[in-house]
Each structure stands twice: as C-alpha cells, then as structure tokens.
Specification:
The chain has 66 residues and is mainly alpha-helical. It is 76% helix and 0% strand. The protein contains four helices and no strands. The radius of gyration is 12 Å and the shape is globular.
C-alpha cells in the first residue's frame, strides 16, 4: 500500500507549487507525514510560509492546518 501512496505523493509534487494554496496543500502535507518524509514535509511547510508571507484569511487557515 505504501507504494500506492508514494505514487500519489509524486503526482502531487509535480503540481503542488503551481496550485493555489488550499485543500490539496493539506492533503500533500498529510501524505508526506503518512510516508514519514519529515524532511520534505518541513521543506514544504517552509515553502508555504514563504509563499503566503503575512498570512491572513484563508491563507492563515490553510497554513495552520498544514
């Protein structure tokens, strides 16, 4: 089953940086944690925080959930 989730994570990784921050950002972060990829998770969180800058409104909501 982990092989299946790894493929899903790889597919997300191809597009996650060009997508608006939203539910799929949370789903990608959850996949990283589920697969115990802490370094990529930490990197992704840092990238999200940099993209958002000063979080307000829904951006703050999504960042808090990741």
């Amino acid at each position: 089953m982990r092989g299946f989730w790894k493929e899903v994570m790889d597919d997300y990784a191809k597009v996650i940086d060009i997508r608006p921050i939203g539910d799929d950002s949370f789903e990608y972060a959850a996949l990283l944690l589920m697969l115990n990829d802490r370094s990529r998770y930490n990197e992704f969180c840092q990238q999200l925080a940099a993209r958002i800058g000063d979080p307000r409104g829904m951006d703050a909501y999504f960042l808090a959930h990741v």
